[in-house]
Amino acid sequence: MRLVFDGAALVSNWQALGWLSEPASAGAAVKADGYGLGARDVVARLSAAGCRDFFVAHWAEAQALAGLVDPARISVLHGIAPGEEALAKAIGAVPVLNSTDQIARWRSMGGGTCHVMIDTGMGRLGLDWREDVAGHCTGLDIDLCMSHLASADEDSAQNETQRLRFDEVRTGVSARRYSLANSAGIGLGSGYRYDCTRPGLALYGGVPCGALAGIINPVMRIETRVLQVRQMQAGDSIGYGATFTAPAAMRTATLSLGYADGFKRGLSGIGGFAHNGARLPLLGRVSMDLTCIDISAAPDLGEGDWITADFDLPAAEAATGISQYEWLTQIGRRFERIWVD
Ligand SMILES: *Cc1c(COP(=O)(O)O)cnc(C)c1O
After folding, report:
1. Do 90 and 59 meet the contact criterion of CB atoms below 8 Å apart?
2. Would you say residue 235 has pLDDT above 90?
3. Taking the CB of the first residue and of the last residue of the chain, which one, N or C, has fewer CB atoms within 10 A?
4. Domain 220-311 = CATH 3.20.20.150
5. Where is the Alanine racemase C-terminal domain positioned along the sequence (predicted)?
6. In the chain, which residues fall in CATH 3.20.20.10?
7. Against a cut of 0.90, is the pTM above it?
8. Which positions are catalytic?
9. Of 81, 100, 94, 95, which Cα lies nearest the Cα of 138?
10. How far is the CA of 253 from the centre of ligand 1 (A)?
11. What gap in Å lies between CA 116 and CA 97, rounded to an integer?
12. Which is nearest to 201 in space by CA: 24, 32, 35, 18?
């Protein structure tokens, strides 16, 4: 089993998001190990292409990028929790301060360049936009003043509400740069771009909104091998629960790939593979380590042959209801990982 990552597509997605973000510059959200692709592989390529701002959630994720980029270019979205002060100082990445407690902790550590998150309606992290945000931030050396959109991938009135709140509050906050948009936010138009955008999903081939369709290219391909070819008779069933019964004699293949690899059971009866232009549908349930397919349309396919999943993120989300974010971040750890370019 292997995941094949297209480095050129990763870079061209980032460049396309950068052009769309102009005059703002596009950074890159690389939390959760680069959405499952491998943060070091992603950061090395995007940094070489000119990306200057990288966003992780945890300090350990910043630490894992050691030696690749200047830590001053890495933002830690969760900020600083009690007990993390020494680690934060040692790593030297920049905290996103989310609360008055975090601001106080940063000041007591001696301060320095930081970022600040304002909650304009997401209701998760950040200084409440109705508070005295300007007062809380007085004297801080703020690089990015940011907020995060809750409904950017929907045509929702909440986007404009958040943008207006951000504008109202940010004017009182002295920062070098302002930032609001994630991937889908970039598609909302020039009013959302400010100085820096923070795409994640779309870098990796996810398409969160219609505005990015046709612009973003797939980055990840799932390949595996045929473990066994079988000749089924009419009436034979396949897999747990015997949910598929062969209506006639047919050739099937059993593949090394299952839900433990992030190839989720929700693809049962929906997913398929591709081989020399033929589509080979899944049969029965996806199990933990194995998946069965109909290979009637690929008579040359034999044991040991490599085969490619007919898989793309937007289609998988549409077919299963499992979000593109979950498909990526829950991809399995048993794959060999190969970067081309
Ligand atoms: C994860 C994250 C992003 C990236 O969002 P995408 O929807 O993946 O583009 C941007 N900003 C913040 C604060 C985030 O947590």
Report:
1. no
2. yes
3. C
4. no
5. 219-340
6. 7-209
7. yes
8. 31, 240
9. 100
10. 39
11. 5
12. 35
